[in-house]
Amino acid sequence: MAKSNTIEQSLAHASHVCRVINGLLTVLLVGAGLVWITALVMSLGQLGVLGFDGTSLIAYIVLYGVLVLGVLIMLKLIFRDAINNETPFTEKQADRLRFIAFLALMFALLELAFTLGVTFEAIPSIGYDVVVNRGSTEPVISINVGVLVFSAIMYSLSAIFRYAALLQQLSDETV
């Protein structure tokens, strides 16, 4: 009886933590969305002003926002299911984690492509007017290793969750 009570308390605590994280993700999602929309509107407002051709910058802002908001939405869905007492070890959750890994990889590639374009002026007609590498005059290519590691971790977790889901399914079919 005492062991069952301890498990129930642990589950209640885990559910509470998931609710708090879900709430924080909601605040972060709304805040990131507002910042993204503000940056996009401000950049769109600068089109044509003083000869600013910021189509590449606007494309970057759009893609950046979609990727960041996509990751936050997927995380919210994972924690929402936990709040609803759904098992985390499902193929649906594994797919969500794999999608987060994909979005993070796309984020790293977006940054790499943008810094390559800025550093080597791949399309000079675009006319980048940004400061690269905190104002350094040396050309630098930015590879966001942290995001690449995050992507690898999320992909690994998706494989573990998929394996656990399949084990659970096998166990359920055996019983």
Set out the fold topology.
Elements lengths: L1 H45 L8 H29 L7 H30 L24 H30 L1
Describe this structure in words.
The protein is mainly α and 175 residues long. It has 2 domains: 86 residues; 89 residues. It is built from 4 helices and no strands. Helices cover 77% and strands 0% of the residues. Helix 1 runs antiparallel to helix 2, helix 2 runs antiparallel to helix 3 and helix 3 packs antiparallel against helix 4.
Listing every helix as H and every strand as E from the N terminus to the C terminus, the arrangement reads HHHH
What percent strand?
Answer: under 5%
The tally of structural domains comes to 2
**Overall SS class:** mainly alpha
Percent helix, as a range, is: over 70%
Number of strands: 0
The total of helices stands at: 4
Low-confidence stretches: 127-133
Using brief descriptors, characterize the structure shown.
single chain; elongated; mainly alpha; 4 helices; 175 residues
